[in-house]
Design a protein that fits this description.
By secondary structure, the chain is an alpha+beta fold. The protein is built from ten helices and eleven strands. The structure holds L-homoserine.
Amino acid sequence: MHLNSVTVRAPATTANLGPGFDSIGMALDMWNDLTVTRGQFSVSTTGEGADILPQDTRNLVVTGLEAAYNFIGEPVPGLQYRCTNRVPFARGLGSSSSAIVSGLVAGSALSGANLTIEQLTILAADIEGHPDNVAPALYGGCTVGVRNGTDKWIVDQVKVPEELYAVLFVPEEQTNTHESRSALPDQISRTDAVFNIGRAALLVNALSSGRLELLKYATDDRLHQPHRTQAFKAMPHLIKAAINGGAHGAFLSGAGPSVLALATGREVTISYEMAETARTHGVVGKPIIVAVAHEGASVVSSS
Ligand code: HSE
């Protein structure tokens, strides 16, 4: 059956989770909606990023949808894209991935191709360049993704305790991921590699076994956080405040500037401690308490 319109939702995501730079990510229960309807091309956005995002073919929802059609070798039809964005834009919460993934899932459904989640992951990770936001946006929960060869991505899900919550502090200031990545060194010492390898493994094991007391060691990092502290001096203080408030572990979410704490209780205290620390360091922003999303992007309606 030829669909005329498809509505898709895709979640926010947090990437890196401390030591899992460009590899580990987790979906959060905060969603962007995209409706695509056959008609003359247009893009409209309401909500987060509406005043900044391009309302033309440069918008990543269009990039995602076109990637699905290009993959199956069919021409892209004329479409109206309507975005309702709730994921804070350019704050390290996967707004780009949410857009790419929602476009891909919409294109897959509208074209009738019904691509597999593995195919969607490869297409999405190729657009984004790394899988730590797009994979959890597609699978839900926590994922580990690695590149295998030049054109494949291997993704697996990590079991996450149902009661796990994320406490975020989301600064008003935006981060340009491209610029933030260019501040990172190309080479690291063996000591730092060992530091992160052990912690990334410990992180995955702690989440899947439920031994959350290990997270205070397992969320530490030497690959990106120390370098990104130069541009965001309050970061280590926010991480410390979250731990003092009762979080199991805390880290810079993606390229930042949001800081995310993992908790199973005391969420309000943690958010208060983070907000107070932000205030004393002159960082304007807001705390948000959000559950882990155990489902990934999906079609919510079609006609
Ligand atoms: N792993 C990525 C980074 C996530 O830290 O730069 C942001 O796209």
